[in-house]
Amino acid sequence: VNSSYFIVHGRIQHDRAEVDRTSLVYRDPTTHSTRVVRIRDQL
Questions:
Q1: d(CA 16, CA 11)
Q2: What's the predicted TM-score (pTM) here?
């Protein structure tokens, strides 16, 4: 089974604070649309 779930990990600037954001994104292989399942922000 080919899983469409993948982890997107990046660092962004948010309210002058650096936020380490990890989000679980689901990609639909048929419509190529992405949907954020979960976002965890660590200040």
A1: 12
A2: 0.30
pLDDT digit string, tens, across residues 1-43: 556 655 555 565 656 666 566 666 777 778 777 777 666 665 5
Rounded CA-CA distance 25/27 in Å is: 6
Question: What are the residue boundaries of the structural domains of the chain, listed by start?
Answer: 5-42
Extract the runs of DSSP E, i.e. beta strands, from the chain: 5-14, 17-27, 34-42
C-alpha dist (Å) from residue 35 to 6, 18, 31, 39, 43: 11, 23, 11, 11, 23
